[in-house]
Design brief:
283 residues; Aminoglycoside 3'-phosphotransferase, Chain: A, domain 2; 2 domains; six-stranded antiparallel sheet; three-stranded antiparallel sheet
Amino acid sequence: MTDAPGSDEVAEADRRFRLWMHQNLEYAADHFHLRITGEPVFGWRYRSISAPANSPEGPRWLRVVSEQPQWAHGRGWTGNADANTLSGLPKPHVLGVHEWQEGDWRRQRAEVMTHVPGVRCSPTDTAQPELNLPDRWWQDLQQGLQHLASVPTERVSTDQAKVDHRVHAAFGAHVDCRIQRWETVHGDLHWANLLNPLAILDWELWGRGPAGTDAATLYCYGLTAPDLGQKVRARFPVLDTADGHRAQLYVTARLLHRISLGDHPQLAEPLKGHARDLLRDLP
């Protein structure tokens, strides 16, 4: 039996992977004739690395995502570029894509995008208690998500089978989580994917999903900042409807699964309490 790696071994493996991802970013910058101009930032579990850059045509944003070859396809792999079809939304536009293989163990995808100005609402997915956003920002977000919801697409962010799987795994097979209304959603609308002035980043997972998914995601990631959460609820009345309850139940189940993998431990207790309220009030 092989012993599980210790914490020192995991830390060293992570360090080497981060260094390798920096090298991938430099390779992508050379490919697109860009000059990196800022400190790179990593995505979830170092799966991606991004940085501001300059091109002869102006400022750009460069992102490299790494995946095992069997997962390097489908909606999540091409979502940012597919989102070029979306108009009327404050978001980056993908200008170029380059993919390459690293042996038989990783597939890399580099995307160069327009650089949208603004400051991230949070350095992490969860909300910061001191975040204070102007009314204009909230109005722009409402209008943007309303517009997105009506956009026709064949892309799927979440289907009924995925809702059933997550909700039943978290709360039991007896819970009725049938979705009555569907719309086009961003699919991962947490606080690090939003800028002020408003821009919406990271369109990997967009597509059709339960109505209210984006508002529910924003609300659940804001449970550590109750005042901000109340602003989300006030701005998005869908959260107080039957559709919104089911969307929140799905998002809560999804985040509890992420917590079981070690993500966002500070959300565990607020989410469990929120789930109890949702299950009690579920129509």
